[in-house]
Design brief:
mainly beta
Length: 298
């Protein structure tokens, strides 16, 4: 079965299909926030190849540790009216990621009201769920490194974190195995990804089969004083549908947020750290605000 993402389902527009709409990319990128400092383009003291070798090895350790944790995931997808700035449709789901009696990861739906995204002209499909469940928490390890070209960009501070910056591009595209394209920021001290910003490719832009996705950013936060785990994802962009059989060309403003909370190592408890100080129970956070790379709120 072909997995589609954002599909226009209603053709009521009086606008004509234009060549300009067909030539647009499938999304409008989201900008970086004010926490990103200037880029230092000087050559680092460690060779970029050595940094890549060390941080992908550390990411491998993180990926193994991540599978030993339970957590709660709260995901929201909205369509936005750009004239009124109001939400026109919404999909919302809260899941607990836990373990089955056999010890395998499993997901339990905690709350999932009926979707109203059809009122915004789109619908959720399996690739959207795949992104929320897996792809937004992108990991670059020695195992999948051969699938990407990784280029050193420079050094940049994100709030209080000094990072190495790399551009990541897939060497090939496969509709059945979508891959990350974008930029990652790697903590200079811990050599782990702390922020990723990009998109999953490929989009399917075939007429009447459009499968479009917004760009996204994922922030991580240090858990148990060792590994940086995802805590917040935001995806936002204008998806440009070129039109097809049964629907006309239209732009759809999409906004997604995913929050990852209540991390607990299976069979134990966990602690959350900010700038080397324990902030377990989110004592410095206010619910509903966006954390930066260290878990602060903006």
């Amino acid at each position: 079965m072909r997995m589609r993402s954002w599909i226009a389902i209603l053709a009521v527009s009086a606008c004509a299909l234009t060549a300009a709409a067909q030539d647009q990319d499938t999304f409008t990128p989201m900008p970086l926030d004010s926490g990103f400092g200037p880029m230092n383009l000087a050559t680092p003291s460690i060779s970029p190849d050595q940094i890549i070798k060390e941080f992908t090895a550390k990411e491998d350790e993180y990926a193994a540790a991540y599978h030993d944790y339970t957590y709660r995931r709260e995901a929201r997808v909205d369509t936005i009216d750009d004239d009124t700035h109001k939400v026109t449709g919404e999909w919302y789901e809260v899941d607990d990621v836990t373990f089955s009696p056999a010890g395998a990861h499993m997901e339990k739906v905690v709350f999932a009201p009926p979707s109203t995204l059809d009122q915004g002209g789109i619908m959720m499909t399996p690739t959207d769920l795949q992104d929320i469940q897996h792809n937004y928490t992108f990991v670059l390890t020695p195992e999948n490194l051969s699938q990407y070209d990784v280029k050193y960009v420079g050094q940049q501070r994100i709030d209080q974190v000094d990072t190495y910056v790399f551009d990541v591009t897939p060497k090939s595209l496969d509709r059945n195995n979508r891959r990350f394209q974008g930029r990652v920021w790697v903590d200079e001290r811990g050599l782990q990804i702390v922020v990723s910003n990009g998109r999953m490719l490929p989009d399917d832009t075939r007429k009447s089969h459009e499968d479009l996705h917004p760009p996204f950013m994922t922030w991580r936060q240090q858990i148990d004083g060792q590994y940086w785990f995802p805590v917040y994802t935001k995806g936002e962009g204008i998806l440009h549908f070129s039109g097809g059989y049964g629907y006309m060309a239209q732009d759809v403003h999409i906004r997604e947020t995913v929050k990852y909370t209540n991390y607990k190592r299976f069979g134990s408890t966990s602690k959350v750290y900010y700038n080397g100080t324990e902030i377990t129970n989110n004592s410095t956070q206010q619910q509903g605000q966006q954390p930066d790379a260290q878990g602060k709120q903006k």
